[in-house]
Amino acid sequence: MIVNIIIDEKPLAVESGCTILETARANHISIPTLCHFDGLKNKASCRICVVEVEGKKNLQPACVTKVKEGMVIHTNNERVRKERKYILVQILANHTVDCHHCLRIGLCDANSLDPELCEMCFWCDCVRDGFCELQTLAREYRVGVIPDYMSAQENNYIEEEASLGSIMYNPDKCIHCRRCEDVCNRVQTVQNVGSDANIGSLFEGNCVQCGHCVDVCPVGAFYMQEHKDEILYWTHSYDTDTIAQVSEDIIPELTALYKLKPGDISMEQICAALRKIGVNKVISDEHAVLTAAVQAAKIIEDNIENGTVFITNSNAVLNFVDRFFPNLKEMIHVYESIQSIFGRIAEGMMDDNRQIETGYQDDYMDEAKNKIHTRPYKKVQITSEKEAGAEAAASGNADYVVNARELYRIFIRTGGAPARKIPVVFDAVPEQLEMNSGKVEEISYPEILGRKQWNLDSEPESVSVIINGKSRNCAIAHNLGQTRKLLEGDWKSYDVVRLMA
Amino acid sequence: MGEWKKTQCSFCAVGCGIEVEIENNKIINVRPDKDSPHSRGYCCRKGRTAKYFVDHGDRLLYPKKRVGDHYERISWEQAYKEITEKMNKILAEHGPRSLAFIGAGNPSVQTACATAIPLMKAVRTQYIFNAIGVEFMGCWWSIGRIIGDQMYYLEPDDKNTEVMVYWGSNSYVAHQVPNARRICREFSENPEKMVIVVDPRLSETARMADMHIMPNPGSDALFLRTLIALILKNGWQNQEYIDLYTKDWNKAKQWFEEVDISASLRVCGIPETQVEELARILTTKKWGMHQDLGLYFNRHSTLSSYLCITLMIICGMCLVKGGNVPPECILPRGIKVDERNRKIWRTPVTGRFPVVGIFPTGVLPDEILGDNDDRIRMAISSLCNPLRSYPDSQKMEEALKKLELYVAIDSSETEATAIADYVLPGMNTFESGGDFNIFTLTYPEIVYYIRRRVLEPLGEAKEEALIFAELTEALGLIPKLPQWMYKAAEEAVETGDRMRYFARIAGWLAAGRMRYFDQAATIIALTLGKAYGSAGLAMCWAGLITGPLFGKGLTRNTEKTNKKQNPILSRLPIFKELCELDAAFQKVLEHPEGAIIGYSDEEHLMQKHIQHRDKKLHMWCQEIDDYIKRVIPEKEAENLKLKDGYNMILSAGRRIEAGANASMRNSRTNQYRQPYTLAMNPEDAAERGILNGQVVRVSTERGSLEIPVEYTWQTSKGYCLIPHNFGLNFEGKTYGTHVNLLTNHQELDELTGNVRWRYIPCKVEAI
């Protein structure tokens, strides 16, 4: 049914049943949001999206208010802007002081927060500085004064939750948007965050360490632990080498963080930037991806005639199965993760030049100055896979996992600026280390085994692929909710099931 | 909304152009000035926090004197009367060596030196101690030896060079060169350019590096010697340049023969392959080097600075476009002296000599506390805090307390004003009617700017330039000035014809009063200063027209103003250039953001800047010849070993984002942050069982303090750092402890007396 409304003096005939937010966005009218996330439930918890609806006393949250016949809506008048700014100030006043330090001590005003000026001052401490949804809105709405409610009471700060050593949670930065709750409980069906969660250490509950809470967090409450200076310490070190594997899945996010257009940053430029900051060897993850796919294809081909083949190489899926489907564990074929393959490649490549004399630091007077030392090295996995950090912490197959955000933060502190760099070719994986013995150059069954993105859908992807000469029904779970669905019985209609977190 | 006014920052020597928003005579906001010809919209956090340091409860508003254990407010007249009586008495009994000036020429109010130095000359004391005497002695002395003039130091020609070398410099955080972060970022990000950092630790600048060389702390001099030896051994030096422009190279060359390169580099802890790569870059590309405190405050500091210049020369990068260039001196950066001249004093107890007229600050306690008759018995300190900024606070306090007369001039209460006999309130640069900056660092543009009055002065505070001028007058060191002089000054201000006034003063001096020639600045401060309502502004004018630019013929862009300003005098040959400089002043008066008043002669840098008569770079000198022989790997390895139970090297003065100087006393800007920490490598700390944030005791041979530990990968193992400028009492509260409790005033560079703050053996213990 069509209803007639007026938004910002623009008469529109729109579908009924839509929210004001959906309607406005479909008509290129922008309304700011903070708790809203496309594909997740609207909780109207932040109220940043409030708009004025004529005839209503209070401002209405656009994300949950449905359009009705004859509605006259103002999305950006003074009252609305004032209210939004008030809300932002209230949120920031109850937020830790890691960002906008200048506004909190009354040093700066809203008109002097140009990023160039901020670099001249100092980098704010927050992991999301420069790409935080709250910070962006605060700047857009010219928040210039932030009262300090947090320090008013002693011991008001809550300690960070760092038990995993990968996914971190800082409750003082939480703005209670509840995106993480919806992702964890409804999309991933892990039920670890929010009122249903086990109280105690957040990560001791049902958490399977998929890391998607980090993906949706609008601020720096959920984040991946960083090791910026620690990594640079090793890349600069004389005694320790570093090897990095870069996955191309970081490019879209990295490009967006630099506010560039798609195509402005190439893999080879990232390689150049990593060399610049002192990484000794840089490889692309293509080889590892291919190797993993070869393993997976072989598992499928070897087992397909015996019934449904479950495959996964996801650490979080295995945690998930352990926790929720322990009896199905035996059924699942596990192939090697990209990171694990990287660990082996790194070992092979770095062993080559390990027998080098080192120990310059103190050994002038050292009797054993000519002794051959074993040259240590550090493995850095650069990927946007959110579960990689947890996997590394659990298995040690990489020393550091760096996501696009941390890579960006490293680059702005080191002059990495990949878009300006002259492309450099990756180090080749030596032939003797080729791990797909048949030297396969393309992924078999790309429909199943290609790079897949996590999504918010409740239904798994279903494809039909010819394997061993026969057409087979295959399912790909793009999140843990889909994985759950398949494991609970939907698998029965498929020949191959790929499980991802 | 307040009113925005343009001025210049005064919290460090760079002096960025800023705009300040004023409401009810208070600064409420600061932003960088996009119109500034020198900083072009750049300004670091120091300037932007100005409002916290200008108007507060610790401002000094009235003169006061110490009576027993408290202070009493007195009038200016009484202050001058009592101070000068005491000064004259001590001078009469003990001669000029009894008087020392401390400060006078800080990065804050600098016009003070314009009248303080004439006063020194009038009483014939040569003692002046300030921050230059802790850091720049070695570098400026070396420049003096090699190019023949201590006033010009070399900086990278950042517009034309390819490689930026930061030696012992955390420029990205220190902001001690114009546009520091912009330049560092551009050289780092631009694939055609390069950043090389020499620093034992992963500083914020080292993070930006394309090549990071990490010598063991304290081994820079040996490394420089080895680097030069390696270049020469391979024949990579620019022999053509050396043949054309140097003298005594064949003698100096011998310093680098028979250097055991491998053994030396082992002591330095640097792989030979990296040094070779570095040598190749330095001998094939255009490069400029910024040396800083990591080198100046280290072992063998003078030798290191000397060798840095030697390195520039053998690579053909000294005084050439795209290499290392001397930003023009607009105002004198000190007094021209050559310590080989017998008239130049040496300190009696410590045997030290001045560089650019300034004595090494570390010797102050020993020169005061000695029992020799010619010891220092009285001191006037001007806008500086010897108890926090100079080495060994305890010893310094003991010394200052022993003085028979100690006068402290400052705009705020400090630890020094708390022990002075007389405290005189000075204006800060926001209140002063005009203040200049002697550290002009732009190149090739010559930019002059005046820090203008943006706030009405508080209480009875006076400009320091005026205080010294009035003291000179009260001491009876200048004759009573005739009324016409005041009148001429008023006319000059009214009509803008300052040159006529100048000519009359010059004529008056020439008529049998040449003995007052050195007091000309004081006379101008008292007369033109009175007419301008600002002695500082009068000094900005006098300093410019009679400063080092005079006689150089570099003034440009001022013809129009000159024609209008000085239609007749500007045609006279003697006055022509003075008039041009006067016109430049006029231009700057009309442009509070500053103005480009000329350009360096980029094509004739050698001709213009080498002051030796033969116009050659003098490579050899006796002092270095004697000294360098000791800097060999065997001895250095022995001397770099930690002894006496000390287990780490402390760097006193980590450059931090919260960085400030001692005149920025309000710790409000540190709220929510904890910049007062001991930076320790996490592995180091863990080995000692020290947790992140745990309070530890750091002890040196001079003292100990307690401080929380900060785990950071920004430092190497065995090397820990504490920032300066904490432990300042502000409105009754003190945050942190001053690191100079740990430093030794006797650990000075042997050749020139720089302090050794970046290499202090220490013990770190959990408590």
Give a brief description.
Chain A has 501 residues and is an alpha/beta fold.
What attributes characterize this protein structure?
heterodimer; A: 501 residues; alpha/beta; 5-stranded mixed sheet; 17 helices; 31% helix; 14% strand; globular; B: 767 residues; 7-stranded mixed sheet; 6-stranded mixed sheet; 17% strand
Oligomer: heterodimer
> For the terminal residues of chain A, how far apart are their CA atoms?
39 Å
Q: Care to count the β-strands of chain A?
A: 16
Largest sheet of chain A: 5 strands, mixed
Low-confidence stretches of chain A: 354-371
Low-confidence segments of chain B, given as residue ranges, are none
- Average pLDDT of chain A, rounded to a whole number, is 89
Radius of gyration of chain B: 25 Å
Roughly how much helix do the residues of chain A carry, as a percent range? 25-40%
Mean of all residue-level pLDDT scores of chain B: 95
Note the overall shape of chain A: globular
* Radius of gyration from the alpha-carbon trace of chain A, in angstroms: 26 Å
Our count of helices of chain A gives 17
Question: How widely separated are the two ends of chain B?
Answer: 51 Å
Main beta sheet of chain B: 7 strands, mixed
So what's the overall shape of chain B?
A: globular
In which order are the strands of the major sheet of chain B placed?
Answer: 5-4-17-16-15-6-7
Overview of the molecule:
The complex is a heterodimer of chains A (501) and B (767). Chain A contains 17 helices and 16 strands. Chain A has helices at 20-26, 78-93, 101-104, 115-121, 133-140, 179-187, 212-216, 228-236, 251-257, 267-276, 286-303, 315-324, 338-351, 388-395, 404-414, 446-449, 480-487, and strands at residues 2-7, 10-15, 50-53, 60-61, 72-74, 167-169, 222-224, 241-246, 281-284, 309-312, 332-334, 377-382, 400-402, 461-467, 470-477, 496-499. In chain A, a hairpin with a 2-residue loop joins strand 14 (461-467) and strand 15. In chain A, helix 11 packs across helix 13. Chain B is of the alpha/beta class. In chain B, helix 13 (261-268) packs parallel to helix 29 (633-639) and helix 25 (559-565) packs across helix 26. The longest helix of chain B has 19 residues, at 76-94. The N and C termini of chain B lie far apart (51 Å). Chains A and B meet through helix 3, helix 4 and helix 8 of A and strand 3, helix 8, helix 9 and helix 13 of B.
